[in-house]
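Fill in residues.
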């Protein structure tokens, strides 16, 4: 899925030419750690070559790539940047924090009575870093002002709609809700420096849980809804810190249909 903006709000920034923003769900994630990095370095994978052609064709000033496996050392993101540059899509600035995907904690987080499975991670993943997000930008990233909500506990979101069992007790357990983070992948507010002294453009990036594959407690559906509520609260000042700045763009995979839910 590709979503591209060169919309009316961009012209209000008075950028010349107008800024072009895009999100792209790459489907590039692999089933084991290091496999994507190896494929990028080899440079012969047909899917990755196609990805590079799409990115070059999009020609976005700011691009949010989804479903990219990441590592704590940043090697995969750096290799991806080099690979795209070699294939006609250079980006001077790359941001790729580690996601919640694949982070295990020894608890049963989905309530199926089993431990250590992909659904027991803080965000779905068969290994840590699977299917993360990478922000590629031609505009400078003001990293010291980055606001990262990835570590926010679900229970700490004001008005959180936490799942419960039919008897009213916490689902899957009170212990699980002590550690369960809200974001399935990540959630960042990233300030970018606009050209010509026009200030900052805040990119609000996230990838929400699919609200399906659920039980009667509606854990995934409730989580998806609250991942969207996070940004409503960030924008209206309910959730501190309130996001500053005049210009912003939501760049995301919401995993819901605007008409069918």
């Amino acid at each position: 899925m590709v979503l591209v903006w060169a919309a009316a709000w961009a012209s209000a920034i008075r950028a010349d030419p107008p800024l072009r923003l895009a999100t792209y769900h790459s489907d590039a994630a692999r089933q084991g750690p290091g496999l994507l990095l190896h494929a990028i370095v080899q440079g012969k994978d047909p899917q990755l070559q196609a990805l590079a052609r799409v990115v070059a064709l999009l020609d976005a000033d700011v691009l949010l790539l989804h479903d990219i496996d990441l590592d704590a050392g940043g090697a995969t993101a750096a290799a991806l940047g080099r690979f795209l540059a070699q294939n006609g899509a250079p980006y001077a600035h790359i941001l790729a924090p580690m996601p919640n995907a694949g982070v295990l904690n020894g608890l049963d987080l989905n309530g199926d009575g089993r431990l250590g499975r992909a659904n027991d991670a803080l965000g779905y993943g068969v290994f840590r870093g699977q299917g993360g997000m990478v922000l590629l930008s031609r505009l400078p990233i003001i990293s010291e002002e980055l606001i990262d909500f990835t570590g926010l506990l679900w229970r700490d979101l004001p008005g959180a709609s936490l799942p419960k069992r039919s008897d009213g007790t916490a689902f899957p357990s009170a212990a699980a809700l002590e550690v369960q983070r809200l974001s399935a992948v990540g959630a960042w507010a990233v300030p970018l420096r606009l050209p010509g002294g026009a200030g900052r453009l805040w990119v609000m990036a996230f990838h929400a849980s699919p609200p399906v594959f659920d039980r009667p407690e509606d854990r995934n559906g409730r989580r998806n809804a609250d991942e969207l509520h996070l940004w409503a609260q960030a924008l209206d000042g309910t959730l501190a810190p309130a996001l500053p700045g005049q210009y912003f763009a939501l760049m995301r995979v919401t995993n819901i249909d605007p008409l069918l839910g």
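Residues 1-11 have pLDDT under 50 and may be disordered.
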